[in-house]
């Protein structure tokens, strides 16, 4: 009996896990376990023998059961300790630094323009960046021989060998978008076309990809006076102060008459301030849409007329935020963005001001 006890108590003490423990339980006190079998033998004993063997077996059974229970608890505690050790976390450590992104100035100005023109009833039109040369040039009264085609530093998309069709181009302006909008919608129409455009040019004020917002308003009796009002409203909302404009006669193939538009500014201490002073700064081109352009877009020029304008989004972003080099917009090092305070600037609208 003592031997039996020692065997099991020792085995239970060194059981490695719950499965081993269960095996020992079955072996010792299970239905066919060693101790249960011994208990069954009690019936064959003399009453005297049974009187000592009975209580001794019961005591042994109890002792083994308690040893099993104690070991089970010890194994569970050890497993929990091990898990706690593995999953230990110092909640007093400082948090990880999160990099905060901000909207790009060009995107922000793009949205500001959209909001301001939306307040004046202009919808946004979009179109492909890889254009048919008809949409980019011919429809805009820039025929094949026109010097403007050569001047525009166009990126041509080459055709496969043997394909003689004219090559596609990366659009050099967003004007094709308005041609497509007129074809789709007809007149009257009031849209702006913000988007990326491409010209093979690179210096402090030119990048091969830049952004334009163009506008178009066609109706029965739209005039240059409406154009001047729309532009002054736009610049005043955009710069957050009353801005005067000056029109100078110019020439574009797609407008007649045409005007370059300057905004009022001052040049004090080497920085430009818009909306004050006696100087002028050229910011956009405009005019009355050429009848040939209306015709190309399927709008009858004897019934409809209107204005169009175009300006560089990057350029007016630089002006508003005092950014001197256009190339900064597309630089991979964006620390300058923080320098110019980009982040939580509000989007101005005509009604809200800034
Ligand atoms: C249609 C008809 C006419 C849009 C116009 C300009 C003049 C112009 C430049 C400003 C700075 C391009 O980004 S820039 O280099 N744009 O001078 N754009 S009139 O005329 C249109 C457009 C669409 C159907």
Describe this structure in words.
The chain has 354 residues and is α+β, with helices and mostly antiparallel strands. It has helices spanning 2-13, 18-29, 34-40, 47-86, 105-119, 133-136, 147-151, 175-185, 224-239, 291-296, 313-321, 335-339, and strands spanning 123-124, 130-131, 156-157, 168-170, 189-198, 209-219, 245-252, 255-268, 271-274, 279-289, 305-312. Strands 1, 5, 6, 7, 8, 9, 10 and 11 form an 8-stranded mixed sheet that branches. Strands 2-4-3 form a 3-stranded antiparallel sheet. Strand 7 (245-252) and strand 8 form a beta hairpin. The longest helix has 40 residues, at 47-86. The protein starts with a helix and ends in a 15-residue tail after the last helix. The relative contact order is 0.11. It binds ligand 2U9. The site of ligand 2U9 has 21 residues, from helix 8, strand 6, strand 10 and strand 11.
Helix and strand run: HHHHHEEHHEEHEEHEEEEHEHH
Low-confidence stretches: 343-348
Radius of gyration, Cα only, in angstroms? Answer: 43 Å
Specify the biggest β-sheet: 8 strands, mixed
Which ligands occur here?
ligand 2U9
Shape: rod-shaped
Strand composition percent: 15-25%
**N/C terminus separation:** 95 Å
Total helices: the number is 12
* Average pLDDT for all residues: 89
Please state the oligomeric state of the protein chains shown: single chain
Structural class: alpha+beta
Helix proportion of residues, in percent?
40-55%
- Please report the total strand number as a whole number: 11
